[in-house]
Structures are given as structure tokens and as C-alpha cells.
Specification:
19 helices; about 500 residues; oxidoreductase activity, acting on NAD(P)H, quinone or similar compound as acceptor; thylakoid; mainly alpha; about 75% helix
Length: about 500
């Protein structure tokens, strides 16, 4: 046991300093903004320090364990701990949230509440990635919903109430299954009910019961991830939310579903996962094609990027379904890689909208001439998204491919078919991304408008975009930087599938 409660401090700090926002003096929005950004940076530095000095990379066990009794009656503990799987997502959360608060600089209406909600989300996400108790996992999962609902419904576009309601209905519907699964497992446990991950991971269930639990948890994570056909809330929510909220949604929220699939479905129900994994592969392959072709038909810029997110999530599903070291590592790398790329694309879409006030692609054109910097960054991140070699997206998708091809579980014919479908998806990705760039930046449509004057991106936006672009390039050049975090843990998870 670790004596100093590092993780508790990391989880509780953002929401605690968020509550203090309401006591700050009324001196305009500047104080609130600077306060929030400084607190995010402080939290990120604290997390980085803890992981550098107190986390051992070569140890596959859970580290920095903290266990405090919370509710005696339910045997409910505040139980936190991290391993290689959770380090990447926690650091990603800190990085993207800090940049999203910087992106929210133009938000002036009710900025106290806005920044408080951003910090509350920060706590919920880190709590989810580090919780080692199922009920705590569920509470952190739910803590996320209210801030997102308020951020979309108060600072969104014209249809914001519709999108926010749709978001809450879908995710709360998924949470019902999650809660039923958590209670079912807790009550089924040994003589007294337990929700401790460590005990549950070594427990075996009757086959039928394990399949029922698996499906329950899977439905909850499928809404968040999102997996077709439970994805329809995502384009609407992204289409209406403010772009700083979109950065958090695309960068972190979708990854919570993927993390849950690995952390709960793979670790606790290995038999059920090996039964369902062929279906995961089929759904993942269909999702890549379906979302890419739907994206091509979207006129709304943000919705086009949102469908591209859904398509990229297909690679994560295939990586998780392949049950190989390569495939699972590729899926974890894709989680980090898409977190950066998705956040950057939504930020670019939002800042472009702030300048030209147009949403539909067929009304744009010729933006490259007045705004060369935005054009350069948009093109760079689109290339990263379509898996250009040298960028993080390429490495992640390539490793997932290898994981699928080397999987001993599937017949050669199946692997060839799914590889073929993934390859078609990878051809469709450049089509919709390059046509988006063509419609926005080339031609003379806006340029011919006599009274138009657009300013290019300023230092704040350039700093933000370059901060995201450097890790995308870095991971593309040296993927071991991220892969080394989880390699040991991935082997432990997969050992359950092959040695039983």
C-alpha cells in the first residue's frame, strides 16, 4: 500500500478547485480563465510527477493502490489504483482538458459555471480511469453525464436542447445496463458481496451468466464508444456543442467506452469475450465502412468529422476483438492517437466557424487564401487522420492490421475478408477528408465576397494546435513511447485467454 494518497489528490483536486471558482472576485472573465488554465496545468504536472517517480513501467500489477472504507453497509470502498492501461488515458485526459480550457477562451457567458463543468468532467474522467471498485467506476461514469448535458444545452448551437436530450437519453440508457451488471456481479460474488476488481478478476461464473453480464456491460460501453447502431447521438451532439466541449467529447469521452471494454469485458469475462470476439470483428469492419461512407454524405462540417470519429473507433473494436498482443496494443495506441487528432480537428472546425459563420461545406470555398495558417493545420491533421505514414494514426492502424492477421483464433478466410473490408475503409477515409478540404479551402467562393475580411489564427490557437501536433508526430515516429506503457499489462490480460 502506498502511504501518500497521490491518486486521491489527483482525482479530487480538479472538482475541488472547480468549486472555488464561485468564490473568486467579480473581475470579469479573465481571472476565471487564468485560474482554470493554471489549475489544469498544475493537475497535469502533478499527474506527470506521480507517474514519473512513483510508477514502475515493468511491473504489470496494480500500483499506487489506495483503499478507504466508504459505506460499511454495502462494503463500498474508495479504491484507486493504476496500471499500464490507465496511464495513457489519464495523461491524455490531462493534456486535452488543459488545451480545451485554453480553447474555451472566447466563452464569456456564465463563464464560472462553464469552467466549473470542465473541471468536474476532468475529475470524473481521471476517477474512471483509476478506479478499482466497480461501484466507484459506475459513479465516475455517471459523474460525466451532467456536465456534458449542461455544456451542450447551454453553450451549444441552434438545436442544442435536442442534441443534449438525445445524448442524455442514450448514455443514461446505457448506464442502466452498467448499473444492473455492477449489482449483479457484486451480489453474485463469494459469500459476502464484493465489488473489488482484484477479487472479481479471479472469479469464474457459469457460462450463461457470464454471457448475460458481458452483454449488459457491452451495451453500456457500446453507447459511449459508440458502436453502430448506438452511435446516432454522437453526430448530433458534436454538431451542436461548443468546440471546446467537442474536444473533450472526441478526445476523452469516446475513449471511456473502449477503456471499459478492455478493463471490464476482457479482464472479468474472458470466456464470454472469446465467444463474442468474432462478432466484434464483424461489427468493427462494418462500422469502418458505414461511418466512412456516411461521412461522405454529410454537408455539415462538424458532422462529417464526427462520422470520421465513428469510423476510426472501428479499428479499436477490431483490435479488442482480435485477442492478440499486437491487436490490443494497436487498439490502445489508436485510443491515444485519435484522442489527439479528433480533438484538433474539432477545434479547427470550431475556430473556422467563428471566423466565417458558415456550417455547410457547399457554402464554403477559397478559405485557404485569406487564412493560410488554418489551411496548413487543417490539412496536416486531416493527413494524420487518414493515416499518413509518419503520423500516429498510421502506426495504430497498422498494428491493428498485424494483430488481426497474426491472430490464431480465426480462419485465414475470415481474416482476409475483414482485412479487405478494413482496406476499403482506409480508401474511403482519404475520399471524405480530401473532399472536405477541397470544398472548404480551394476555389474562390468566399474570396469573391466583397466585404469579407478574415483574420488568420492567432498565437493562442497556433500554440494549441502545435501542442497537439507534436505528440501526433512523436508517436508516429516513435510509437514505443506509448506502447511501452501497456505492454506488460496486455500480456497479463491475454494470458487468461490462452492458458485456461
Amino acid at each position: 500500500m502506498n502511504h501518500f494518497p497521490w491518486l486521491t489528490i489527483i482525482v479530487v483536486l480538479p472538482i475541488f478547485v472547480g468549486c472555488l471558482i464561485f468564490f473568486l472576485p467579480h473581475r470579469g472573465n479573465r481571472v476565471i480563465r487564468w485560474y482554470t488554465i493554471c489549475m489544469c496545468i498544475l493537475e497535469l504536472l502533478l499527474t506527470t510527477y506521480t507517474f514519473c517517480y512513483h510508477f514502475k513501467l515493468d511491473d504489470p500489477l496494480i500500483q499506487l493502490m489506495e483503499d478507504y472504507k466508504w459505506i460499511h453497509f454495502l462494503d463500498f470502498h474508495w479504491r484507486l489504483g493504476i496500471d499500464g492501461l490507465s496511464v495513457g488515458p489519464i495523461l491524455l485526459t490531462g493534456f486535452i482538458t488543459t488545451l480545451a480550457t485554453l480553447a474555451a477562451w472566447p466563452v464569456t457567458r456564465d463563464s464560472r459555471l462553464f469552467h466549473f463543468l470542465m473541471l468536474a468532467m476532468y475529475s470524473g474522467q481521471i476517477g474512471l480511469f483509476s478506479s478499482r471498485d466497480l461501484l466507484l467506476f459506475f459513479l465516475m461514469w455517471e459523474l460525466e453525464l451532467i456536465p456534458v448535458y449542461l455544456l451542450v444545452s447551454m453553450w451549444g448551437g441552434k438545436k442544442r436542447l435536442y442534441s443534449a436530450t438525445k445524448f442524455i437519453l442514450y448514455t443514461a440508457g446505457g448506464s442502466v445496463f452498467l448499473l444492473m451488471g455492477v449489482l449483479g456481479i457484486g451480489l453474485y460474488g463469494s459469500t459476502e458481496p464484493t465489488l473489488n476488481f482484484e477479487i472479481l478478476a479471479n472469479q469464474s461464473y457459469p457460462a450463461a451468466l457470464e454471457i448475460i453480464f458481458y452483454i449488459g456491460f457491452f451495451l453500456a460501453f457500446a453507447v459511449k464508444l459508440p458502436i453502430i447502431p448506438l452511435h446516432t447521438w454522437l453526430p448530433d451532439t458534436h454538431g451542436e456543442a461548443h468546440y471546446s466541449t467537442c474536444m473533450l467529447l472526441a478526445g476523452i469521452l469516446l475513449k471511456m467506452g473502449a477503456y471499459g471494454l478492455v478493463r471490464i469485458n476482457m479482464e472479468l469475462f474472458p470466456h464470454a469475450h472469446s465467444i463474442f470476439s468474432p462478432w466484434l470483428m464483424i461489427v468493427g469492419a462494418m462500422q469502418i465502412i458505414y461511418a466512412a461512407s456516411t461521412s461522405l454524405g454529410q454537408r455539415n462540417l462538424k458532422k462529417r468529422i464526427a462520422y470520421s470519429s465513428v469510423s476510426h473507433m472501428g479499428f479499436i473494436i477490431i483490435g479488442i476483438g482480435s485477442i492478440t498482443d499486437m491487436g490490443l496494443n494497436g487498439a490502445l495506441l489508436q485510443i491515444i492517437s485519435h484522442g489527439f487528432i479528433g480533438a484538433a480537428l474539432f477545434f479547427l472546425a470550431g475556430t473556422t466557424y467563428d471566423r466565417i459563420r458558415l456550417v455547410y461545406l457547399d457554402e464554403m470555398g477559397g478559405i485557404a487564401i485569406p487564412m493560410p495558417k488554418i489551411f496548413t493545420m487543417f490539412s496536416s491533421f486531416s493527413m494524420a487522420s487518414l493515416a499518413l505514414p509518419g503520423m500516429s494514426g498510421f502506426v495504430a492502424e497498422l498494428i491493428v492490421f498485424f494483430g488481426l492477421i497474426t491472430s490464431p483464433k480465426y480462419l485465414l478466410m475470415t481474416k482476409l475478408l475483414i482485412t479487405f473490408v478494413m482496406a476499403i475503409g482506409m480508401i474511403l477515409t482519404p475520399i471524405y477528408l480530401l473532399s472536405m478540404l477541397r470544398q472548404m479551402f480551394y476555389g474562390y467562393k468566399i474570396f469573391n465576397d466583397p466585404n469579407s475580411y478574415f483574420f488568420d489564427s492567432g498565437p493562442r490557437e497556433l500554440f494549441l494546435l502545435i501542442s497537439i501536433f507534436l505528440p501526433v508526430l512523436g508517436i508516429g515516429m516513435y510509437p514505443d513511447f506509448v506502447l511501452s506503457l501497456a505492454v506488460e499489462r496486455v500480456e497479463v490480460i491475454l494470458s487468461k485467454f490462452f492458458y485456461e
